[in-house]
């Protein structure tokens, strides 16, 4: 089964991440990892880091590593989950995101069946029933759409998990080559320069072009002289 290799990150792995920081980071005195606070209310959704999760490669394993990096640097995070990962990702999803809003009911049913909480906000590229927000698409797949939303919400630290943007980055459920990846990368290329300071990735083409989210980047104060926040109407069709 494709999910057998996926596991939560261990304390030992977290210690190794701390070692990678050359001693600049420290675990709590008892050595146990602690999770950053994720704000539960719609009035306090903003966190330090936006973690965007797609369906390529092994998104759950990449998400666990990204969370561990946030823990090690003392950063809170918000979860931006895209498409079919919405059906199965455990825990709180701060922002559910898709360019296929007609598929949400199926993902919602699967989520209800497993007892997972519903996303706090739902985003599409157009007004749609049950969706709280919408904004225009950048034509680079749902992964880039999630990045756009994070930037519009003011995030300057965005980590990509399961968004390699390669044909070889097989979908975690279908496990098929994604031949459309090359075409969608054109959308990324159009905005790559403006996104470069704010985006890092765990794997694939996006990792090659944006880099890995090392501790120095996570704790850096990144200037945002031309913020996108407030440039678009995010008013969706309320449920």
How would you explain this protein's 3D organization?
With 239 residues, the protein is α/β, with parallel strands linked by helices. It has one domain: sialyltransferase cstii, chain A (Alpha-Beta Complex), CATH 3.90.1480. It contains eight helices and seven strands, in the order αβαβαβαββαβαβαα. Strands 5-4-3-2-1-6-7 form a seven-stranded parallel beta sheet, sandwiched between helices. It starts with 10 loop residues before the first helix and ends in a 20-residue tail after the last helix.
Distance between the termini: 36 Å
Task: State the strand order across the main sheet.
Answer: 5-4-3-2-1-6-7
CATH class bucket: Alpha Beta
Per CATH, what is the topology?
sialyltransferase cstii, chain A
Task: Report low-confidence residues grouped into runs of 5 or more.
Answer: 1-44, 235-239
Oligomer: single chain
What class do helices, strands and sheet pairing give? Answer: alpha/beta
Largest sheet: 7 strands, parallel
Number of structural domains:
1
List the helices and strands and how they pair.
Layout: H1 11-20, E1 49-53, H2 59-73, E2 77-82, H3 85-88, E3 95-97, H4 104-113, E4 121-124, E5 133-134, H5 141-152, E6 158-161, H6 181-195, E7 199-201, H7 204-210, H8 215-219
Parallel strand pairs: 1-2, 1-6, 2-3, 3-4, 4-5, 6-7
Keywords:
239 residues, alpha/beta, sialyltransferase cstii, chain A, 7-stranded parallel beta sheet, 8 helices, 7 strands, 11% strand, disordered N terminus
